[in-house]
Amino acid sequence: QVQLVESGGGLVQPGGSLRLSCAASGFTWNVYGIGWFRQAPGKAREGVSSISSVDGGTYYADSVQGRFTISRGKNTVDLQMNSLNPDDPAVYYCALAHPFTGFDPLSDHEYDYWGQGTQVTVSS
After folding, report:
1. DSSP string spanning 5-54?
2. How many Å apart are CA 45 and CA 109, to the nearest integer?
């Protein structure tokens, strides 16, 4: 079955960087999307970034545009997070959408499978 495992979370100072990785396995689809979402305490889950398997198209929330970069490896999707600020701490989840329409690439309604999440903390 589909498995998504996040890694790379941790504690970082404001202005610092972290690289999250999502290891995806258990499927052979060629058309799918992988997204990164986050949820802070008391807040709704927010789409952060996503990438299409078809054309490598990438999508970013306005709040992370220019600071975060999503990329694909052979079996992973990474999220490079730079210039982290006090608005970024949350549990970060990766998710898989199949099929991936790209119609609303940062909406959690598009995604069918979810990882367990990894905590990101930003503190001095």
Report:
1. EEE--EEE-TT--EEEEEEEES---SS-EEEEEEE-TTS--EEEEEEETT
2. 11
Question: 83: Cβ–Cβ under 8 A, 6 or more apart, which residues?
Answer: 15, 17, 67
**pLDDT tens-digit profile, the chain (124 residues):** 999 999 999 999 999 999 999 999 988 888 889 999 999 999 999 999 999 998 889 999 999 999 999 999 888 999 999 999 999 999 999 999 998 888 899 999 999 999 999 999 999 8
76 three-class SS: strand
SS3 71: strand
| Structure tokens belonging to residue 9 | 């979370």
> Between vectors from CA 55 to CA 51 and to CA 59, what angle results, nearest 5°?
30
Let me know: does 56 contact 72? Beta carbons within 8 Å.
yes
